[in-house]
Specification:
The chain is mainly alpha-helical. Among the domains are: 135 residues, Up-down Bundle (Glutathione S-transferase Yfyf (Class Pi), Chain A, domain 2), CATH 1.20.1050.40; 64 residues, no CATH class; 186 residues, Orthogonal Bundle (Neurolysin, domain 3), CATH 1.10.1370.40. It is built from 27 helices and 7 strands. The strands form 2 sheets. It has a 5-stranded mixed sheet, with helices on both faces. Strands 1-2 form a two-stranded antiparallel sheet. The chain is globular. The chain starts with 27 loop residues before the first helix and ends in a 5-residue tail after the last helix.
């Protein structure tokens, strides 16, 4: 092992936090090569053992293997998402195929697969604990899904497909980031930005200065709906931002994703066909908590019909408020206007009571303390990967340190859009490791000396992503691959969605909501108005989400023959036909993500899985009611939720564990009520 490679060296910092300051981009490729070779040697040692096959010398040995590679992977991909550069993009493109080929070398190792099969045959129902049985089954299914059950020709096809997919999905993610940055909208005069707050206008001026331009620059967010469009009074300004948003990655330039997406869809369909599935959606959902693709489609169809009816009523009302026909770029502006008209008090002032640090310390951390007994102590002595990133040490109610929490909240051009949680160190009793997790958001960075004031959406996002962080921090599992958020895709959003409920919960809101200038507590009528406004989702929000989920399934329910045909040559035409068939083809409410910049499914891990947000929300809506009926922000409730969900990772069957919490299966009625879809 190269002794001077700081990526490979195990960190001496608390909790194994990487020493980011010592890491050079030049270290990564040599580190990965060394780490991959080391893991292959470890796997060879497992398969060469003359001892009888046991769980310890096979599955646990696999869990112990690849520790260097895991460290390299978590360090590098935590950097390339929130703070990339040209060198890191090039490294990511090389690693996409290297890592895929490496994974195939293990999952398609015939000797290893034989040991796993032997262990499954030898292990009776009572021989293994539940977490061990689930882990053994996981390794077996991963091998089968990689092609271990195919002949040599089939396995070679699977290797080629997975390697090419890794390259293409990495490329699409980079194209989306590049074109989103390039599509920022320039304005000459601040009067064109009427409706934005003083802080938002200052941030736009700063964004222009950062690229050496005069005037103002409105950077785009990842979704179709841009927050600026809901606020800008000037209809031409709204139209410009809206057009820039919906036309990303589909303009025939160097960042056009069309050809890559068509190839991704066809390759995924071919892989599914090789493994005996009708399409990629069936291949993906076979591993989720949903029973099958038909069940998912049925849920989306049920919700789409109710949402479309509600959407027609909502649009009729908005047109009446506007006094004229609406363009698609007008809808969210008039939706915000309608929300204000429905409120007993002006809602514009709410953000003045949501300063980021106050929300974080006296809201997010406060709720975690009340529910889970956690405390967060700043560690300014620990440096993260960017000067904007802060570090806290996390303690439980006994005073024991349980991990580190990193917060990376401000937008920058080197950061991909959206918000997420990453695990930098996975919790594991087997490896005696405690977690290090990071939350990444894209809040516009204010000018020096100015506060970062959160909109309601940004407030909710902060609580949502912290729910993922809690899932990682409170993990208490034996095996690293079952740690924290390593659960089925359509369950992973559940804990984070539950945590959103505390954002406007009275005890929490009263604790953090202070005016950023005067320190005065939020007026009761404004607090109540904010809660009322957030209580029911708009039909627009539901429809744009459902349209994106339907698009995801439409692309991934194609057979290989269909995906290779002319029907998918025109992405826009395919989109239109799929949405019309689902009853979601209205031009005034486009999908949350159009195909060309649908990062979740073509560059992230949500292919045929974007439905998971609404699937998880069924559990979330029921659990919110459980918390409220059980007294809300009580330590006893937190303990029960930790026991059923937050501590368990994938060591138990998640739906069964949730049913124990509720005392019954979850129903859909609370979700319909929350989203205003009941009659």
């Amino acid at each position: 092992m190269p002794q001077d490679n700081s990526v490979l060296a195990e960190s001496a910092l608390p909790y194994g936090l990487p020493d980011f300051a010592s890491i050079s981009d030049d270290d990564f490729l040599p580190a990965f090569d060394t780490a991959m070779a080391a893991q292959l040697a470890e796997v060879d040692a497992i398969t060469a053992s003359a001892e009888p096959v046991t769980f310890a010398n096979t599955i646990e040995a696999l869990e112990r293997s690849g520790q260097q590679l895991g460290r390299c992977t978590r360090i590098f991909f935590n950097l390339v998402g929130p703070d990339t550069n040209r060198a890191r993009n090039e490294i990511a493109q090389q690693l996409s195929t290297k890592l895929t080929d490496h994974g195939n070398a293990i999952t398609l190792n015939a000797k290893l697969f034989d040991r796993i099969e032997q262990l499954r045959e030898l292990s009776g129902d009572d021989d293994l604990a539940e977490d061990q049985r689930r882990l053994l089954d996981r390794y077996y299914r991963d091998a089968i899904r990689a092609g271990a059950g195919l002949d040599a020709a089939g396995q070679q096809q699977m290797r080629e497909i997975s390697s090419r997919l890794a390259y293409l999905t990495t490329q699409v993610g980079q194209f989306i980031l590049d074109d989103t940055n390039a599509s920022a909208v320039a304005f000459d005069d601040a009067t064109q930005l009427e409706g934005l707050s003083a802080g938002e206008i200052a941030a736009a001026a700063r964004a222009a200065a950062d690229v050496g331009a005069d005037g103002y620059l409105l950077a785009l967010e990842l979704p179709t709906s841009q927050a600026a469009v809901a606020a800008l009074v000037n209809s031409d300004a709204r139209q410009r931002v809206f057009d820039a948003s919906i036309n990303r990655c589909a303009r025939g330039n160097d960042s056009d994703t069309s050809a890559s997406i068509r190839e991704i869809v066809a390759l995924r369909a071919r892989r599914a066909e090789l493994l005996g599935y009708a399409n990629h959606a069936e291949y993906t959902i076979a591993e989720e908590t949903a029973p099958d693709a038909d069940a998912v489609f049925a849920l989306l169809a049920q919700l789409s019909k109710a949402a479309a009816d509600a959407g027609e009523r909502e649009l009729t009302r908005l047109a009446g408020l506007a006094g004229s026909a609406l363009a698609a770029s007008d809808v969210t502006f008039w939706l915000a206007t309608a929300q204000q008209a429905d409120s007993a008090v002006p809602l514009d002032d709410f953000a003045n009571y949501c300063e980021l640090d106050s929300v974080l310390h006296d809201g997010v951390f406060f709720a975690a303390g009340q529910l889970y007994g956690l405390s967060f102590v700043p560690r300014p002595d620990l440096a993260a990967y960017h000067p904007d990133v802060r570090v806290w040490e996390v303690f439980d109610d006994t005073g024991a340190g349980i991990g580190l929490y990193l917060g990376d909240y401000f937008a920058r051009s080197s950061k991909r859009g959206g918000a997420w949680m990453n695990s930098i160190v996975d919790q594991s009793k087997l490896l005696a490791r405690l977690p290090v997790v990071v939350n990444v958001l894209n809040v516009p960075k204010p000018a020096d000396g100015q506060p970062a004031l959160l909109s309601t959406d940004q407030l909710t996002t902060l609580f949502h992503e912290f729910g993922h962080a809690l899932h990682g921090l409170l993990s208490a599992v034996r095996y690293p691959s079952q740690s924290g958020t390593s659960v089925p895709r359509d369950f992973v959003e559940f804990p984070s969605q539950v945590n959103e409920m505390w954002a406007l919960y009275p005890d929490v809101l009263d604790n953090y909501a202070r005016h950023y200038e005067t320190g005065a507590p939020i007026p009761r009528d404004l607090a109540e108005a904010a809660r009322n406004a957030a209580q029911t989702e708009s039909a627009h929000s539901t429809l744009e989400y459902l349209a994106a989920a339907v698009l995801d399934l439409a692309w991934h329910r194609l057979s290989f023959e269909q995906a290779s045909g002319e029907a998918v040559d025109d992405l826009a035409a395919f989109e239109s036909a799929a949405l019309t068939e689902a009853g979601l083809g209205g031009e005034l409410i486009p999908p949350r993500y159009r195909t060309a910049y649908f990062n979740h499914i073509f560059a992230g891990g949500y292919s045929a899985g974007y439905y998971s947000y609404i699937w998880s929300e069924v559990l979330d809506a029921e659990t919110e009611q459980w918390f409220l009926k059980s007294g809300g922000l009580r330590r006893e409730n937190g303990r029960a939720f930790v026991e059923s969900t937050l501590s368990r990772g994938d060591s138990v069957e998640p739906i069964a564990s949730h049913q124990v919490l509720l005392g019954r299966p979850a129903g859909i009625e609370p979700l319909l009520l929350r989203r205003g879809l009941t009659s």
